[in-house]
Write a structure and sequence with these properties.
Jelly Rolls, 2 domains, alpha+beta
């Protein structure tokens, strides 16, 4: 009898156990659905971050007139779109697709967003640039490859990440090296013994080239380099140094070493500006110099003459900003070789 009662008790309790088991079974999908339900707060934060980053790319401007800030802005493109790619990937992550597939989709979406920001820049008075889209793509590729490598330890992902980061960082590394080269060479203002010396050389002159000084014009046993400056039309820039070493205080004169290999004289105009220049002709130093045919000459200019050249003020010799050398009006065409400029 006792055994029958125990058996009956066991039978009577089994339905409750089955109900609990069924409840647990029904509750499991509910728990999974709650876990997979979208977190609207998180999604809203990611959307806000995307909007902020893309708006910054379109409208944020860095200070003009310094190459460092220009390069920094371009580096910012890559970093920004690396973050954008990660945000897009966070929206896409799904158990139904592989990480590689999600990274591919995120890459395509990010490149498209980069192209759209370039088009949008038309309305902020900046020209669109396909090169900037490439910078955006490199930043996205670096970020997505890093994510892929952390999960798969793929050699290909590591290679893509490394190459992308190298390409992104190279312009900034070259820029910093050029500034260091400029500062270390002071009181030499302009010379051409290294390719880095060409970094700040420009001003729209076409055909500028760093060449070896012809043997006829060499002044010593050591090899000399010069800047080949074609002089095509009067008044247009031949060559410009866009970021001069700024502080000329404590020096007394500027020397310019220039060669005229042509069979006729050439008249050159030297223009010097400081940071406060207002783009008026009378607000800078302007002087003409005749370089005799077939000669290498050294021009000496007193810095007090440069300092007193702007009308109504004195040039700020702590913040000299720019040098331009070009063919004067009435002078014949041809070319000259600029060997160097330095302060004494």
């Amino acid at each position: 009898m006792a055994s029958q009662r125990r058996s009956s008790s066991a039978v009577t309790t089994s339905p409750s156990l089955r109900r609990e088991s069924r409840g647990a079974a029904h509750g499991a999908p509910d728990a999974r659905r709650r876990a997979e339900a979208p977190d609207w707060t998180s999604n809203a934060a990611r959307v806000a971050a995307l909007v902020f980053l893309l708006t910054a790319v379109v409208f944020l401007e860095t200070p003009r007139g310094q190459e460092f800030f220009h390069v920094l802005q371009k580096l910012g493109h890559s970093v920004t779109f690396g973050i954008v790619a990660l945000l897009v990937l966070s929206f896409l992550r799904s158990r139904r697709r592989s990480l590689l597939a999600d990274c591919g989709i995120a890459m395509g979406v990010t490149v498209a967003l980069g192209a759209l920001t370039e088009v949008a820049q038309i309305y902020s008075h900046r020209d669109p640039s396909i090169v900037d889209v490439l910078r955006d793509s490199l930043g996205a590729a670096a970020a997505l490859a890093a994510v892929s490598w952390t999960t798969s330890r793929s050699i290909l992902a590591a290679l893509v990440c490394s190459v992308s980061v190298l390409l992104v960082m190279t312009p900034m590394a070259v820029c910093l090296a050029a500034y260091a080269n400029r500062d270390l060479r002071y009181p030499v203002i302009w010379q051409f013994s290294s390719p880095l010396d060409m970094y700040f050389t420009g001003e729209g002159g076409e055909g500028l080239a760093r060449i070896k000084e012809p043997a006829r014009w060499q002044r010593g046993p050591e090899e000399e380099w010069a800047l080949y400056i074609p002089l095509r039309s009067a008044g247009t820039p031949g060559a410009g140094l866009t970021e001069v070493y700024p502080d000329w205080t404590g020096r007394s004169r500027l020397l310019v070493d220039v060669t005229n290999p042509m069979p006729s004289p050439v008249q050159l105009t030297l223009r010097i500006e400081d940071r406060e220049h207002n783009q008026e002709y009378t607000d800078r130093f302007n002087a003409d110099y005749v370089i005799a045919a077939g000669t290498r000459q050294r021009i000496s200019i007193a810095l007090r003459q440069i300092e007193s050249s702007p009308r109504g003020r004195r040039m700020d010799m702590r913040h000299v900003a720019k040098l331009v050398l070009f063919r004067s009006a009435g002078s014949g065409s041809g070319f000259v070789l600029l060997n160097r400029m330095w302060l004494e």
